[in-house]
Design brief:
By secondary structure, this protein is mainly α. It has one domain. The two termini are about 30 Å apart.
Length: about 280
Amino acid sequence: MSTVTPVPPPPLPGASAPKPRASGSPVAGFLIDLGLAALILFGLSLLAGLLWGAVQGMRVGAELVANGAPAPSPDSIATQLGQPGALAQILMALFATGGAALILYFWRRRATPAERETSMRALGRPATWGWTLWVGTLVIIGSNGIGFLAKRAGIEPVPTNLELMSSAAAQFPVFLALFAVVLAPAYEELLFRRVLFGRLWKAGKPWLGVLLSSLAFALVHEIPGTSGNGPAEIAQLWLIYGGMGAAFCWLYQRTGTLWAPIGAHALNNAVAMTLLMVFGAT
């Protein structure tokens, strides 16, 4: 990168001062954070489903009253409620995953004033955005390269959310772009890089943090049994998502600001959404 002057990675706030011995294992703290994230995500997903069902129930009930129809049977109610559409599913995902990220951040890993100051200083360095563009570009090239080689070997996975994204792209392109390029990168980086990776990084175990948080990132994006993908296809998707997570961890550590991986993540998603909307491909 001849146009970018490398700078040494900024230390974590207070890194120069002696650190008190941690009261517990950082790995245990990571696992607690991960478990809490799963529980909160499940709870918020359930709540979002209940809210959607309540809204749909009121709509169906109002229509029955207006038409003077008799009270429907339970099976008929379920049929009339139907399934959430593309927009509803995305809003429910935003509520659940974004809510889980915010809760874990403010509860477990809220930034200190010194950390916020370090991040703001990093935002003003041209090198920060040079590294962001560089890593984002490498992630795009690497993901497509893995996909190309896998396709030649007869491995063609279908991402779990492809059908949902395709439907949303056709019906709500502007909202999908806002969700995929702005909102999703922000809350995913907050959860996986700030909360999960950040705990082990601060404890002096950055490479362990890269490994564990990237595994969690890959698993969340492709859960076995939720799609028609076989073992080889799942392994390919895990390799892509895990590599993406590792690259964003490195970028966060290199620049010292979470805005850098958010930017690289947004760039990757913007390219993917453009391909999806223009060519119908990921």
